[in-house]
Structure formats: structure tokens, C-alpha cells
Amino acid sequence: CTRTDVPVCFCEVDGNPSPELEWHLSGRPVTNSSNTFISEERLSSTGLRSSITLHQSLTHTSALECVSKNTHGTARKQLELPLSHLQFT
Fold first, then answer.
1. CATH class of this structure's domain 8-82
2. Strand partners for 68
């Protein structure tokens, strides 16, 4: 994740068959909305890159996870959010 005015995180996955990718924030699936922007770019027939931009306040308990799935299973990667964007409650 990068430290800008808003946090932007990236995830790259590769698998055969090509996986689908989801973002989860604090265990819940995230979709495009006024608070989040998700983009995907196909890198190859088996590779995918996704980015998520979070236009929302986060807490120290906010956990961001990249989840990739295909017919062979599921892989998860937890990402660290830049501390400057967290609100401690």
C-alpha cells in the first residue's frame, strides 16, 4: 500500500485457470462505491493485477485482504494499511 492523500493498495495474482480476485476489509467483501475504487488489469492469460483506493476513514482494527480464487482453491494476502490513514478509536 502507498502513502498518498488516500491509501492505494495493489495485489497481483497468477494461476491456472486464471483466478478471480476480491478485496475484503475487516472480513467483509468490498465493491466499487463512493468510498472505494477497485480496478483490475489482465496481465496475461493466467495473471491479474488489481488496485483498491480507499476514500474512507479506517480504524486500527481495519484489516485489508486480497483474496484470489480459482477451481484449485483460495489464496489470501493481508496488506498493511499506511498508519497515516488510520483513525485510532
1. mainly beta
2. 21, 75
